[in-house]
Amino acid sequence: MDFDKLLSVLLHSKHMDESLKRHKISDAISERDNHGHTSVEHLVWKNNLQAIKDFFYLVIRHAPTSLPRLLQTTSKEGWNIGHVIARYQDQETLEYFFDIVNKYAHGVLPNLLRAKSKSHWNIAHIIARAQDLQTLEYFFGMVIEQAPETLISLLRARVNDGRHLGHIIAQYQSPDALAYYLNLVKIYAPGSMSRLLTSPLKDGLTMGHYIAHYQNHEALGDYFKFVDSNIPNDISGVLKNITKEGWHIGHLIAGKQNQEQALAVYLDFVVNKSPQDFEELVTMRTVKGWQLGHFIATFQSQQCMADFIQRVITLAPRALPDIINAKSHGMDMIDIIEKQHPSSLRPLIYQLLTCNVPLGEALNERLTKYKSLMVEHISRLPVEEQVVALKNAFDKATPLGRYFDLPTDFWHRTFGENAGLIFRLHALQKKVDTLYASTHVAPAASDSSPSLLVPSIQAWSQFSLFHKPAPLYYPQTDEQTNQFGNG
Length: 487
Description:
Helices cover about 65% and strands about 0% of the residues. By secondary structure, it is mostly helical. Helix 19 (about 260-275) runs parallel beside helix 22, helix 21 (about 290-300) packs parallel to helix 24 (about 335-340) and helix 25 (about 345-355) crosses helix 27.
């Protein structure tokens, strides 16, 4: 029966006896079209609020006893009228619908709230998927006031793929809606908090994975703070939970473009709240062999890479060579950067050479092929940083000096007066150190005693020479270098 016929039954029901009225209206409500949809479902799907109001006016006036059945009748897919309104109408219509339920269908509300479609979606799931924060706040406010006994079951209920309300909000709603949900769980379902926030779905995804994938860095930070404040014993589990593909939260963040802030939030949380897990997390491989470093090298900026490497140097120095050398599909981090972000290769190699962490024979040998690239990198450094780099390059006791092991005249030809001054400063510093060591006595700090201390690099950098350095050249070949003479 179509909707026009249903209206006709309602309009003429006042002339029918009660038995016939119930029979006719019952048939009209229950009858479905070829696709399994009821006529009432079509009404709330295709019409505006005024049409819906007119319809309920007729039902309440002419057939009020049939209202409970009308509200709970479902389509072939298990959707009732409330599900359809939540999916296709706005907050005003939803408010009107629940007002009708509470005024004219006493005792029906809890059943409507718990009712599930064949895919196990209840009305709360649908509102979280289709509506906004304001509607979500209205709905749960109404539930708390009118049917509080259903609240915990609504927060715990899962759809057929295992997702609960938190997963759906994390996927489709704003960070503010996510914060609202977390507060609901904290207040009304504290005993379920750990399970809701950390338990994995069939594919291994947790609510943390959903937030890492769908939300921004602010929502991610709020989630981490919530976990730290309310379920601190679950921090390690939250960080180390992996999907069936072997992805933890960090992989998901680093595997998305332009996630510098989110990646920093994640790494800060690991470093501050679970430093004992840092090495395991940065070396953990996905099923396809990707480590966190591979994702960062592929998708993130040079600054993200530098920050990541510095954290590894600080917290897991022993793992640094393995992280750099680890291969996925035949490519390690250096290969990936050289192929996809070649401009980031110079700072990465320089960072490795100056980190004072043993890199191992294999990696040291690998880095020797980039000597000319490192000369170019030093030539592009700001003056004060260049001064420090040249000082270390002259000193065979430093990693940079051992790496280059180049004759002094090479640096003079390449860097001109800068190199000459640094070389003289370095030689003078050695003489001072020798003299100091032979006396075993610190020089007196008085104006009448001659000081044996050589000015610091920062003091030398105040000279105009360092603010206006000689031209810096990148020698492509020895012949080209010779053309520049002494700079």
